[in-house]
């Protein structure tokens, strides 16, 4: 009976859960045929993964460290790196096992519903993914607008333009770029994104070293908050931020872009991605926190370019870093909107009419533009970049990237209860369930606290 139920809810068909034939070719599934077309190689998956994980959010790592200090900061950054690599590796094995058994899954929600044999998991995952995608899209647009504002203020310190005006510009560019039809079509953009992440990390690290050794070097204070309760809340908020930075929540969709068979390809892609992670994450975290300590901004570029006084590093270095960040943010916005586009086009597009037919082109133009307008509106209205990252990490990335992969592996491979793997997976699930609950509470608490510091459509990003 359980086997029949799993086959019944397996998402290999053309409809949503509950009405899916056991075995179909997805020939009427426009979301699969168009957005998630399977043509990529392992290095393309590496490009997508790197863009999804290694983004300008790493410039928030010094901000995360200021809530934990050196010891806990290093420990959390390293532990979460190890856990997420292990987690993504396990999920790739689950996807490969399903493919070998004739159930190739290209969507996270389908994988979870099939393996766990429960229809509600489909809706749980799609809800969390929607939260992640929208949150990251809002954050990307907000940070891009912030970058434009930084450049503008350096060129015209007395200029009258506000943050929301720069966000409107970024949103317009994203509307144009969002018309790239498939995830696979982003592979060249995401290769450039990989080099951009290395580029601005090197520039920011060099700028921090320059700032620390210059005559205008800021005073360094690594002390934590006085209140014990405040320290605990700040630590869990910081852990949530790191979880959001390491997370992606779309690994099955990235693996879907690989040409089958996919065996072993994601491991190579993950190795490429985590090689970049090692270079960028530690460089940004160490250099930024070393220089600014507990005064680090949620975007370390704002610390290097203070509102009062001269820039703490050569302006051409910082300007180039801002340009690199700005360019990569467009790639990140494109990657994280793919699941939303796939959901929309599964319902709105007709696979028989062709990708660029008038029948499909017009709905795609309207729906994708509307999605970006909504994200841009919320980015302008709620300039809480650091706080948004913490909340998204706690309620989104921790369940999808730190808990579900372990559960999916245990359900698929059924390791013996006496095995090291079984107990490691269960320990990770228990620990990060607790971290997620505490992180959600502390992140929402900080969001409510910061609500007193800003007004709608503020011209400054609140730390």
Write up what this structure looks like.
By secondary structure, the protein is an all-alpha fold. It is built from 18 helices and no strands. The chain has helices at 2-9, 30-35, 42-53, 61-65, 69-100, 108-116, 119-155, 163-177, 187-213, 228-246, 251-256, 265-292, 300-304, 315-336, 338-348, 358-381, 385-413, 420-450. α6 packs antiparallel against α7 (119-155). Mean pLDDT is 85; it is low at 1-25.
- The number of strands is 0
- Note the run of SSEs as H and E: HHHHHHHHHHHHHHHHHH
CA-atom Rg in angstroms: 22 Å
Shape, principal axes of CA atoms: globular
Low-confidence stretches: 1-25
- Total DSSP helices: 18
* Fraction in helix: over 70%
Q: How does the helix and strand content classify structurally?
A: mainly alpha
Strand content: under 5%
Largest sheet: none
Rounded to the nearest angstrom, the distance between the terminal CA atoms is 53 Å
The overall pLDDT, averaged over residues, is: 85
What topology emerges from the helices and strands here?
Blueprint: H1 2-9, H2 30-35, H3 42-53, H4 61-65, H5 69-100, H6 108-116, H7 119-155, H8 163-177, H9 187-213, H10 228-246, H11 251-256, H12 265-292, H13 300-304, H14 315-336, H15 338-348, H16 358-381, H17 385-413, H18 420-450
């Amino acid at each position: 009976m359980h086997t029949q139920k799993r086959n019944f809810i397996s998402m290999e068909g053309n409809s949503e859960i509950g009405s899916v034939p056991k075995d179909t070719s997805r020939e009427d599934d426009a979301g699969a045929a168009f957005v998630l077309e399977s043509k990529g190689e392992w290095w393309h998956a590496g490009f997508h993964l790197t863009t999804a994980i290694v983004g300008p959010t790493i410039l928030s790592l010094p901000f995360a460290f200021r809530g934990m200090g050196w010891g806990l900061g290093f420990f959390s950054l390293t532990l979460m790196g190890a856990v997420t690599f292990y987690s993504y590796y396990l999920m790739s094995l689950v996807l490969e096992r399903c493919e070998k058994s004739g159930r190739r899954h290209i969507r996270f929600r389908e994988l979870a519903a099939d393996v766990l044999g429960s229809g509600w998991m489909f809706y749980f995952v799609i809800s969390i993914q929607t939260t992640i995608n929208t949150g990251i899209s809002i954050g990307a647009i907000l940070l891009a607008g912030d970058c434009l504002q930084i450049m503008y203020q350096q060129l015209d310190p007395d200029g009258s333009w506000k943050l929301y005006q720069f966000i409107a510009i970024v949103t317009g560019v994203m509307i144009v770029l969002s018309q790239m039809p498939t995830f696979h079509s982003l592979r060249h953009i995401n290769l450039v994104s990989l080099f951009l992440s290395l580029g601005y990390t090197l520039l920011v690290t060099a700028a921090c070293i320059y700032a620390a050794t210059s005559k205008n070097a800021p005073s360094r204070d690594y002390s934590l908050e006085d209140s014990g309760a405040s320290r605990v809340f700040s630590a869990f908020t910081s852990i949530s931020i790191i979880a959001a930075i390491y997370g992606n929540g779309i690994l099955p969709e990235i693996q879907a872009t690989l040409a089958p068979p996919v065996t072993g390809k994601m491991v190579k892609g993950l190795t490429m991605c985590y090689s970049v992670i090692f270079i960028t994450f530690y460089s940004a975290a160490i250099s930024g926190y070393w220089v600014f300590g507990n005064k680090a901004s949620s975007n370390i570029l704002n610390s290097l370019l203070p509102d009062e006084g001269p820039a703490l590093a050569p302006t051409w270095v910082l300007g180039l870093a801002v340009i690199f960040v700005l360019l990569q943010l467009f790639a990140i916005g494109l990657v994280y909107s793919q699941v939303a586009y796939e959901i929309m086009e599964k319902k709105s597009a007709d696979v028989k009419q062709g990708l660029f037919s008038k029948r499909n082109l017009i709905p795609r133009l309207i729906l994708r533009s509307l999605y970006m307008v909504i994200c841009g509106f919320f980015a302008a209205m709620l300039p809480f970049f650091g706080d948004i990252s913490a909340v998204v990490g706690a309620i989104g990335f921790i369940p999808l990237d730190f808990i579900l992969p372990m559960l999916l592996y245990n359900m698929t491979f059924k390791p013996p209860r006496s095995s090291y793997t079984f107990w490691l997976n269960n320990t990770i699930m228990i620990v990060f369930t607790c971290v997620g609950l505490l992180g959600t509470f502390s992140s929402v608490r900080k969001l409510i606290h910061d609500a007193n510091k800003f007004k709608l459509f503020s011209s400054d990003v609140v730390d």
